[in-house]
Amino acid sequence: MSAFPYILGIESSCDDTAAAVIQNHKILSNVIAGQKIHQSYGGVVPELASRAHQQNIVPVVSEALKQAGINPKQLSAIAYTRGPGLMGSLLVGSSFAKSLSMALNVPLIEVNHMQGHILAHFIEDAGNKKPRFPFLCLTVSGGHTQIVKVNNYFDMEIIGETIDDAAGEAFDKAGKIMGLDYPSGPLIDKFAKEGNPEKFHFSKPKVDGLNYSFSGLKTGILYFIQNETKKNPEFVKENLKDLCASIQKTIVDILMEKLLKAAEQNNISQLAIAGGVSANSEIRNRLKALQENEKFEVFIPKFTYTTDNAAMIAMAGQLKFELRNFSEITEPTIAKYPI
Domains (ranges, CATH) in the chain? Predict the structure, then answer.
């Protein structure tokens, strides 16, 4: 028997069914099954997502164990996403994790999805180096935009967050306005690389403190494109790359301005990013540029660990396992679960 425990992580907070096995902070397998069915609806349909999770959960977990080269009886604990997320989706993963924990008679470990994103930085191959405490983490996804002060593995404080829509939602809604497929974020990033970010200018919201707002920007983009399309029906088609570059620059400007303000106010020079939108190339480039002046130390995880995945849940699970921080099987799933 191995000296180090094997821990299975299960993630099902939105539309990706994922399972991963970790041992001694090293990921042995990381399997993800996506759901293309939502593309035709322009967003995730909760009922369809939960049904797809029910179909995917058993084969995904089986494949994760197979790739890790172990059998279920070798597992020392089961970690799962308790929240936040879509309730129907979360229930599929949590129910499976609880049942497997009981069947194998091993501890159950609940994980906060947003903490998982941040703790992905501590996976052995997540990056060349790991952040030291305290550090600031900009967590950006389709449902969340937060600046988190990370004092320790499970001592995290939100010091800034969106008061309405998330940055990922702003990308997707802007893409929908331009007629792009869902999810639009990666497509905007792709087209922006060939566009002029200074071609079009959108007003930035004025929000106090370290909080964000993206609803006004979405409305501004909508009205601008509607007005221009009335004058020229081919406006979006003829200016797509410049529009993408300009919209992306505006969103990233908003994100970076508040992150730098937070760093100054808290006297913290270590900056990290996490969440699906942290895969955006402009955010990554802007952070890398900050590091070049040697004032900041920047931590950018592998693409694999940015979008929803079970490796981050397994990592958080291992850290909790080391603390003997186990969960009761009666703990309810939480759709809104603050860090």
Answer: 6-120+306-322 (3.30.420.40), 129-300 (3.30.420.40)
Burial of 271: CB neighbours in 10 Å, binned 0-12, 13-18, 19+: buried
Q: Quick one: the chain helix, strand, coil %, rounded to 5?
A: 45, 20, 35
- Summarised one tens digit per residue, pLDDT across range 138-182 is 999 878 899 999 999 999 999 999 999 999 999 999 999 999 998
Identify which of 321, 307, 291 has the alpha carbon closest to the alpha carbon of residue 128.
291
Write the DSSP symbol of residue 132. P
Joined together, the tokens standing for residue 318 give 């291992």
Residue 15 clears pLDDT 90, i.e. is over it: no
The span from the CA of 22 to the CA of 25, in Å, is 6
Rounded to an integer, the average pLDDT of 74-101 is 96
Q: How far is it, in rounded angstroms, from Cα 97 to Cα 90? A: 11
Q: Are 247 and 221 in contact (CB under 8 A)?
A: yes
Q: What is the DSSP string of 97-120?
A: HHHHHHHHT--EEEEEHHHHHHHG
Weakest mean pLDDT among 122-126, 175-179, 195-199: 122-126
14: three-class secondary structure by DSSP: coil
Q: Both ends of the chain: CA-CA distance in Å?
A: 36
Q: Could you tell me the sign of the dihedral formed by the alpha carbons of 314, 320, 322, 328, in that order?
A: negative
Q: Is the pLDDT of residue 89 over 60?
A: yes
- Summarize pLDDT for 163-173 with one digit per residue, the tens: 999 999 999 99
Question: Is 45's pLDDT higher than 70?
Answer: no
- Reduced to 3 states (helix: H, G, I; strand: E, B; else coil), residue 31 is strand
Contacts of 150 (CB under 8 A, 6+ apart): 118, 131, 133, 134, 135, 136, 137, 156, 272
